[in-house]
């Protein structure tokens, strides 16, 4: 097991429906962070095409090709890569975060909580399972964007041994405060690392503020992006997680007999 991991968050503007443009951008950014020694790279939510709702079934047909490219990069660079893409299965389209490790898909998480406020539930199907997966950079839990508002999911991932939670997002203005506060809260209450990647810039009618964050288990922000294309890098030291959990043993002090058992 590694004692520390170099983690990167690849924030960029997603061109709506333009898979080729976004793939070129992501590939270049992955190359740059690999050159800086990144071992885990987190891309935004639906980064290949954005929320081009009506064209999602057609755009999702390209996802296997995008995944092949990510697998190649993972194989050549040694990086673990996480990010969400539209996934088509029969008549359903899911918002699916893929974990790519050692040149193959090591785990797949279909977004559980669809953002009904913006009609995501009318165009996408929701997943039925959470995901914690062991990779070469440790045990990763995955959540996507709106999932951040559901602490139960994060607690479940924690109890299942997640050390780092990767959170691809497309979180628009004006809720910057919720984004930053909830990310720090999820890290603090579960005493783990969070690598959250938002997109930035205008996409259709929405304006994204960026503010991708790399956070350690005390809730301290190790790196934070502004509102433009940015590659964040920080080191996650697993001893910090162990020390903090030993110091304030929240997991041991839980009272599940009162408020219910998870998972
Ligand atoms: O919860 C929010 O405010 C934003 C969520 C969102 O944009 C999404 O899940 O796509």
UniProtKB/TrEMBL annotation:
Signal peptide: none annotated. The keyword RNA-binding does not apply. GO terms for molecular function: hydrolase activity. Gene3D superfamilies: Carbon-nitrogen hydrolase. Keywords: Hydrolase. Residues 5-238 form the CN hydrolase domain. Pfam families: CN_hydrolase. It comes from the Bacteria. Belongs to the carbon-nitrogen hydrolase superfamily. NIT1/NIT2 family. This is Carbon-nitrogen hydrolase. It comes from Geothermobacter hydrogeniphilus.
């Amino acid at each position: 097991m590694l004692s520390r991991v170099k983690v990167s968050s690849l924030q960029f503007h997603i061109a709506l429906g333009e898979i080729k443009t976004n793939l070129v951008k992501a590939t270049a950014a992955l190359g740059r962070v690999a050159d800086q020694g990144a071992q885990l790279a987190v891309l935004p939510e639906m980064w290949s095409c954005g929320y081009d709702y009506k064209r999602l079934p057609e755009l999702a047909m390209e996802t296997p090709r995008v995944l092949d490219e990510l697998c190649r990069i993972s194989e050549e660079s040694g990086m673990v890569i996480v990010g969400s893409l539209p996934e088509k299965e029969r008549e359903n389209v899911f918002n699916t975060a893929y974990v790519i490790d050692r040149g193959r898909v090591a785990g797949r998480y279909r977004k559980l909580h669809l953002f009904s406020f913006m009609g995501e539930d009318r165009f996408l199907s929701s997943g039925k399972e959470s995901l914690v997966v062991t990779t070469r950079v440790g045990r990763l839990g995955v959540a996507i964007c709106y999932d951040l508002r559901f602490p139960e999911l994060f607690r479940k991932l924690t109890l299942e041994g997640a050390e780092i939670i990767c959170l691809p997002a497309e979180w628009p203005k004006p809720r910057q405060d919720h984004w930053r506060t909830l990310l720090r809260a999820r890290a603090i209450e579960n005493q783990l690392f969070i690598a959250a990647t938002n997109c930035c810039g205008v996409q259709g009618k929405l304006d994204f503020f960026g503010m991708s964050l790399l956070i350690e288990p005390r809730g301290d922000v190790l790196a934070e992006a502004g509102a433009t294309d940015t590659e964040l890098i920080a080191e996650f030291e697993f001893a910090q997680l162990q020390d903090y959990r030993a110091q304030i043993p929240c997991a041991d002090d839980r009272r599940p007999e009162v408020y219910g058992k998870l998972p």
